[in-house]
Amino acid sequence: MRLFRLVFFILLSFAALWAQADGNKGQILGTVSDPNGSVVPNAKVTIKNTGTGFTRELTTDADGKYRALLLDPGNYDVSSQSAGFSTATLQGIVLSVGGAASGDITLQVQSTTTTVEVGESLIQIALPQPTTNLNSIAITNLPILGRRFQDFATLTPTVQVDPQRGQLSFAGQRGVNSNVMLDGTDYNQPFFGGIRGGERSIFAFTIPQTAIQEFQTVTTGYSAEYGRSTGGILNAITKSGTNEIRGEAFYQIRHKEIGANNPILNLAPNETLQQFGGGAGGPVIRDKWFWFGAIEQQYVRVPRRVFFANLAGVQPTAATQDSLAFFGTQEEPFVQTNNATSLMARTDYQFPAGHRLTLRYQHSRNDAENAVSVGGALSPLSSNALSMEGIERNRIHGGTAQYTHLLSPNIINDVRFSTTYELRPRESNSSLPAVTVGTGGLVGRFGATSFLPTTQDDTRIQIVNGLSVNAGANTFKLGFDYNYLTTSQQFGFNQFGAFNVNGTNVATLLDILSPGGTVANRFGSVDANQYSRQVGNLLAQFNVHQIAFYAQDSWRANSHLTLDFGVRWEGQINPSPDTSNRALADRVAAATFPVGQGKLDPFSIPNALNQWMPRFGFAWTPFSGANSRRTVIRGHTGLFYAATPLLIFAGQTNNFRNPPGNVSLLITPNVQTGETLYDIFRAVGYDLNQGALSNLPVIPLDVVQRAAAYRAGTTGTVDPLTGASLDIIAPDFQNPRSYQAGLGAESEVFSNFVAGIQFNYVNTVHLQRNRDWNLPIPTARAGDQRPIFNRNARPIPTLGTFTVRESSARSMYRGMTLQAQYRVRRFQFGGNYTLSESFSDSDLERDAGGVDYENPFNLRPDYNYSRLDTRHLFNAYGVVTLPWGFEVSMLNQSRSAYPLNATVGTDANGDLQNTDRPYSAPGVPFQRNAFRNRAVTRTDLRILKNFPINDRMRLQFSAEMFNLFNNENVVFNSQTGTGTATFYGLGVDATGAQAPVDTRFRQLRLANGNYNPATTVQQGNPLQAQFGLRLFF
After folding, report:
1. pLDDT the model gives residue 100
2. Among 94, 162, 229, which residue's Cα sits nearest to residue 838?
3. With 60 as the cut, is the pLDDT of residue 4 above it?
4. Would you state the pLDDT for residue 136?
5. 726 with 657: CB under 8 angstroms?
6. Does domain 13-120 have CATH number 2.60.40.1120?
7. 819 sits in which H/E element
8. Is 879 within 8 Å of 139 (Cβ atoms)?
9. What pLDDT is attached to residue 10?
C-alpha cells in the first residue's frame, strides 16, 4: 500500500517531468550567421544521422541560435538554409554520449551550396563538468585483459579500482558510492554496491564488449540530472543497428604455456583463457527499424595451489607436530574455473514524426569452481585450504524500454523503463567448522568459509520520465527518477561454527590447535581465541524505495558564456525491521551505551528524506573570432548524495525477529577468571579435544547455547540468544554526502590536439563505518597507557558485539589533473596525469562486520591518508593505423604507492578486533595508514594485422602482450587491510618500554634475496601473451 501511494503521488504531481535527458544521448548546438557575421534568425536547420537516416528539423531563434536535444550518439550532417542564402552543410559531426557538439554555420550569398567537413570536436564548450569519452575505436582496438568494458574507465582521470571490492573509484571516493549507467539507466548492484555483478564483475563480463559503442566518465561536478554518487559517474551506451549490415566475430586465447613466471615464487601462471563471440546489426526497414545483437563467452582454467607461506621452514616440535602435519596434508594443487556467457539484443524504431523507440534485453551467467571471493586480486597460491573454497554462480537478466517523443522541435518528452534481476547462489566445498589460524589468517584457514553456503537475489525496477524544453537562450529540464529495490537472501555467518585463533607467533598458534604441549588443550589459550555459531534461519527479505526530482536551467547568457543552475532532491525510504522478538528489542532499546550517541533504536531504520542538492556550473570561452571555440574555462560546485548498499540494512531487518535471521553467538575466554574456550565448553560437558583437525565436529547448537550462558554467568533457564552478536543501524544514520568544487580549462593547442588542466575538491561526510557499541569505557594500562576493555563489563553483558552501522566517517580529496588528447584519421592518443591527496578516517567498503579503528572511543588518530591515496596517477594510450594493414595500440597505467597501515598483529586492548595499532610513546598510537606500500606500473601492447577479403569483409589477426616489460609490481600484502607485512608489534610494551619491531613488517626479501611469499604479492600479472582472430563484415 505504501508503494502504491508513493507511485500515485509521483505520477499525479510530476506526470510531465524530465529525467536524465542526456543520459544516453547528446545534443548539437550552434549559431547560423551570414558572411558578415550577423546572426540569421528563423533559418531552417536540418540534422541528419548518416548511419540511420534519422532527421530532425528546427529553426533558429531571434539570436540565430539552435539546439537539438536528445540525439543518439553517432555521425551527423547539419545543413541550414534561409531566404536569400544558399544551403550550407556541415558534414561528419561526431556526437558522443553526454556530449554537446558545436555546429556553427555560415551562410553564403550565392547560388551554389557550401559543404564543410567538420569531424570530431574534442572540446565540449557548453559543458561545465570535466568529462572524458572513450570512443568505439579505442574500445575495439586497445588491449584489454578480460573484455570488461568498465576496465577502460581506469584510463580516464582520477579513476581507480578500489582494492577491497574491486569497484570503480572516482576522485578518491569509495567504489560502492559511484554510479554506473548503461543506456541512461542504473547499472549498479543494489545489495553489494558497485557495478552489476558485484565482486564477480571483476572476473567476468556482464555485457558483451562487442555491444558497447562508447562511454563517458564524469569525474566530478555532474549536473542535477544525475545522482546517487559522491564522486563521478560512468555512462556507457550500447550499439544500435544502422542502414548497413555490419558485424564482427572473434576468438582469442591466452594459453598457459605463453607467459613469464610469477616473480615471488618463480611459478608459471598457467592460466588458460579462451574467449569468443561476436555481434552484428542492420536494418529491418531502412531508415526506420534496426536490430543489433551480440554474444560472448569465456572459458578459464587457473591452476592454483594451497601453500602456507608462514609455515615454510618451520620445524616440528612435540607441541606442534600434529598441527604442522595436518597443514602439510592441506597443501595441494587445485583448478579454479571462471566460465561466463553474456548476450544482448536491441531493436530501435524511428517514427516518421521523429519519435524513437528502443528496446534492449541482456543476460549474463557466470560459473566459477573453487573461486570464493570477496573482492581483490588473485594469487597463484592460496593460504586457504581447498575446503574453504566453493562454487560462485551469478545470473543477470535485464531489459530497458525507452521512448522519445517530439511534442515540437523544441519540446521533447522522454520516458524510460528498466528492470534488472540478479541471482547469486554460492556453494561451499565443506560443511565443517571454519578455523582461522593467526591474525588475518597468518598461518591459514580451513573448514567451510564462514558465510557459505548462501543465496542472494535482488531486483531493480526503474522508471524515469520527463520533459526537455528549449526556450531561446534557456534549456529547461525537469524530472524524476524512481527506483524500487527488492532483495532476499539466505545468508548467515558461522553456519557450522567458526574458531578464530589470533596472534602472530606461529609456534604458539600451532600449539593451540593440538592437545598436549605448552598449551595443554585445543583452544586452551586465554589470550586470543573466540568461537562463533549461527543460531538464525538465515532468511531476509526487504524493499527500498529511491526517488529523485530535479530542475535545471542551462542558460546561454551570450555566445561565450553558459551557466547551469540546478537543484536535485533525493529520497530513500528504508525497510522497517521485524521486531517480533520484542524482549530482545526492548532490552537493546533500554540500554545506554557509553560510545556513540548512547541509545539505539531496533524498531526503525531512518529514512533519507532531507537530501537537497543545489548545483552550479559554468563554461566560458574567453576569446572571440576564429579562436572562440578553441578554449574553454569551466567550473562547478554543489552537493551530491550516494546511495547506501542494501547489505548495510540486512542485519537489522532480521536480527530482532523471532526466529532471527543472521545472528551468531559469540563465546570468548574469560580473561578475568582465566577460563579458556576449552574450559568453558568442558564445563558444559563438551571436550574440544575430540576429533582430528581434518574432521572437527560441528558442535550441537544446544551445547553452544549452554556454553554461552555459562560464559555470561547466567543461571536457570538458558536464553537461546545469550552471547548473540547483533547488527543495527545508528539512530542518526544518513546516506553519504559530498561537497564538490572544480575549476579547469581546455584549449585546442593546434588542430585536433587538446590540452587541459582541472582542479577538483571533494569533501565527503556521513560515510558508513562499523563500530562496536557494546563495550565498556576502557581503563588505561599504567605502563603504556593503552586502553584495555573488560568485556565482562559490557553495557549488556549477556550479549556479544554490536556492529553498529554509523554514518560518522568522512573523507577529503583534492587533486590536479593534466590531460591531453589528439585524434586524427589514423592516430589517436589520450593521456592524463593526476597529482592528488586523499584523507579519511575509515575506508570500509560496505564491510559486513569488520572495523578499521584502533580505539572505538577515540577516532581522532584515524584521520589520515585514505587507503586510496595515490599521490601520482598516470594513464596514457595510443592507437595508430600503419601501412600494409597493421594497427598498433598501447597503453600504460602507473601509480605511486598506496598507504600501508601498521598493526600490532593481535587484539592488544581486548575489544576482539585485530586492528590495534602500535604506540610510538605511552598513550600515543600510530596514525592510521602512516606508512607506504610500493608503486606499480604496467604497459600493454596490441598488434593487429588486417587481411582484406573483399570490400565488405576483412580478417584480422591480433597479438597482445599484457605487462609488456614484465614489471614485477611486487607489493606488500596489505591491499585489503591486515596482512603479514603490516605486523609491526606493540611499539611500546605493557611496561612503557620500546618493543622490538616485528621482522616481517614491510619485509620485501628473505636473506637469500628472494621475495618473501609471506609478506608480498604481485599486483596484477606477469607478462602474458594473447592471440586472436576477428572477422569484420
Report:
1. 87
2. 162
3. no
4. 86
5. no
6. yes
7. strand 802-824
8. no
9. 38
